[in-house]
Write a structure and sequence with these properties.
The protein has eight helices and nine strands. The protein is an alpha/beta fold. Helix 6 crosses helix 7 (about 235-250).
Length: about 270
């Protein structure tokens, strides 16, 4: 977590934009920035983290809702354990997905209702693209920058060898939508690849991260094709059993399997 300016509070002229609209008793003592972006390079992530740091003098951190790392609940637990009692949860995105904007209030209320969280007050900041002329101002600044000429760049679409999918026996679809991310799905992708490699079947598996594939309450979700079986794999122990008993052994895992695709059912 980033640190605030040591032992200093901003003077009237230093107050961040919008804070004069917040009642003193509702002013946060920490900020949790939520980023929703499936494809974000390390350099872009560093720029975004720097922008978040420049936007507040408060202790803060940023999490990605679709990548490896702490999920929303784990991040809130960390802020609570650090002693923060009023936390502003601030979406970051231009625009931030509307489905997540609608989903977040109920999720935050669910966390607040859990035992031990009653002393932490949560506030949800507005979606950035709906605040005044934020996007117009950003675009105006961007359009004022010199563009890069395309002339002289070699034409290309795709890469050599991208005509056919890689050879595989199992296609593993790992849901990394934000609701599954809350249940550590982004880390599941890496754990699944590690367990497949350890079992010697990495070259037989095509592992694909997906957006939301719907059974959010069963997350984290892995769908196995061509078998058509769907599993809830909550931890490394479950993943290891899935790899050893299902992929290697050709068996079932009834305590974690919750669905079979309709066509697969008709062929069983």
């Amino acid at each position: 977590m980033a640190n605030p300016i040591p032992d200093e509070r901003p003077g009237p002229s230093e107050t961040k934009a919008g804070e004069d609209c917040i009642r003193p008793e509702d002013r946060p003592d920490a900020v949790l920035f939520l980023c929703s972006a499936h494809n974000l390079s390390r350099r872009s992530l560093e720029r975004l983290e720097a922008a978040c740091a420049a936007a507040t003098y408060l202790p803060h951190r940023m999490i990605r809702l679709e990548e490896r790392g702490d999920g929303l609940f784990a991040a809130l637990d960390g802020l609570r354990d650090a002693g923060h009692s009023v936390v502003r949860v601030q979406p970051v995105g231009m625009p931030f997905p509307e489905s997540l904007t609608s989903w977040l209030p109920g999720v935050l209320a669910h966390w607040s209702a859990q035992p031990g969280n009653g002393d932490v007050r949560l506030f949800l900041g507005p979606e950035p693209s709906r605040t005044g002329n934020g996007i117009a101002r950003l675009l105006s600044e961007t359009l004022a920058q010199a563009p890069r000429a395309v002339e002289g760049t070699a034409p290309r679409l795709g890469k050599p060898g991208w005509d056919m999918p890689p050879d595989f026996d199992f296609h593993l679809l790992v849901c990394t939508g934000p609701r599954c991310h809350m249940r550590d799905a982004a880390s599941l992708t890496h754990i699944l690849k590690e367990e497949c490699a350890e079992a010697g079947i990495a070259d037989r598996c095509l592992t694909t991260r997906t957006g939301c594939i719907f059974p959010c309450n069963k997350g984290p979700v892995v769908a196995l094709y061509p078998m058509g079986h769907w599993f809830q794999l909550p931890d490394r122990a479950a993943v290891r059993r899935f790899v050893r008993e299902v992929l290697l052994g050709g068996g079932t895992l009834r305590d974690f399997q919750f669905h079979t695709a309709r066509l697969a059912q008709s062929h069983s």
